[in-house]
């Protein structure tokens, strides 16, 4: 009986011991799994957050660069357009002002301060008188144009007026360096001329003109002592045509306003000259 009781006690103690070992094993395994779970979650969370932040940062940087580029392009284009428009407006305005000034000068309206001296080289070339084209009728279209444009005189009255103005028997003039050659009635005479200044004249109509005067270096038979150019220009520039006055009395020439022989380049034909005249 005592033996059975002792064996029962031993079995009971062994049962309690076994139960305790199983409980302890379950707790250790649960703790390990929990730790791994937390570590995995933190690792995943950290990776996602980091990846998300980098992606967001990368996207924002890309957007920032894109916006910056667009702004730069816009500002550059705007500045370019503005500068282009400004320069265009400025150049157009400047060109327009220049045209108005040139037109005013051509018509004889200018300030004394605008006038500059000129050299004989401005008229260098081979020149022909336009008077023969008036005589043969080539310039009739010019007079018709003037009559229609102004209405001040008829075409025939204009022709009579210009017949007095253009009349000359010096059909050609050649200017090379300081040498001027007159071709008159089949004869030619050459001589050297030097600048003798200029004179500003005021006409009855209120407009003005500049006579650029040159004096022969020495007296040559058949040549005028003075020649005076008038080409509607008042500063150094190559002339495209001119009116010429010549004679031996400087002062008397300045008073001549009815006869102004006119010369255009000799390589122009009559119709080209007529169209050039109508353009003015």
From TrEMBL:
Residues 26-38 have a biased composition (Polar residues). Residues 39-65 have a biased composition (Low complexity). Residues 1-24 form the signal peptide. Pfam families: ZinT (PF09223). It comes from the Bacteria. The keyword Zinc applies. This is Metal-binding protein ZinT. Residues 26-100 are annotated as: Disordered. Keywords: Signal, Zinc. Residues 66-90 have a biased composition (Basic and acidic residues). It comes from Paenibacillus ihbetae. Residues 102-280 form the ZinT domain.
């Amino acid at each position: 009986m005592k033996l059975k009781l002792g064996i029962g006690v031993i079995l009971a103690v062994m049962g309690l011991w076994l139960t305790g070992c199983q409980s302890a094993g379950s707790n250790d395994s649960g703790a390990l799994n929990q730790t791994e779970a937390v570590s995995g979650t933190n690792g995943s969370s950290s990776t996602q957050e980091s990846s998300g932040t980098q992606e967001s940062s990368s996207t924002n940087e890309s957007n920032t660069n894109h916006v910056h580029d667009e702004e730069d392009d816009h500002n550059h284009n705007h500045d370019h357009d503005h500068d282009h428009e400004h320069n265009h407006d400025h150049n157009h305005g400047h060109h327009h002002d220049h045209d108005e000034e040139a037109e005013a000068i051509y018509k004889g309206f200018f300030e004394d301060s605008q006038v500059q001296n000129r050299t004989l080289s401005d008229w260098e070339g081979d020149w022909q008188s336009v008077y023969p084209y008036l005589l043969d009728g080539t310039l009739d279209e010019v007079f018709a144009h003037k009559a229609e444009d102004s209405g001040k005189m008829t075409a025939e009255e204009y022709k009579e007026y210009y017949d007095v103005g253009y009349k000359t028997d010096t059909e050609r003039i050649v200017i090379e360096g300081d040498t001027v050659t007159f071709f008159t009635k089949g004869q030619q005479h050459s001589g050297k001329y030097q600048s003798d200044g200029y004179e500003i004249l005021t006409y009855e109509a209120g407009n003005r003109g500049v006579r650029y005067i040159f004096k022969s270096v020495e007296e040559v038979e058949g040549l005028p002592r003075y020649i005076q150019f008038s080409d509607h220009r008042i500063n150094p520039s190559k002339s495209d045509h001119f009116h010429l006055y010549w004679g031996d009395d400087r002062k008397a020439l300045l008073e001549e306003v009815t006869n102004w022989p006119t010369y255009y380049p000799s390589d122009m034909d009559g119709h080209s000259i007529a169209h050039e005249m109508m353009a003015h």
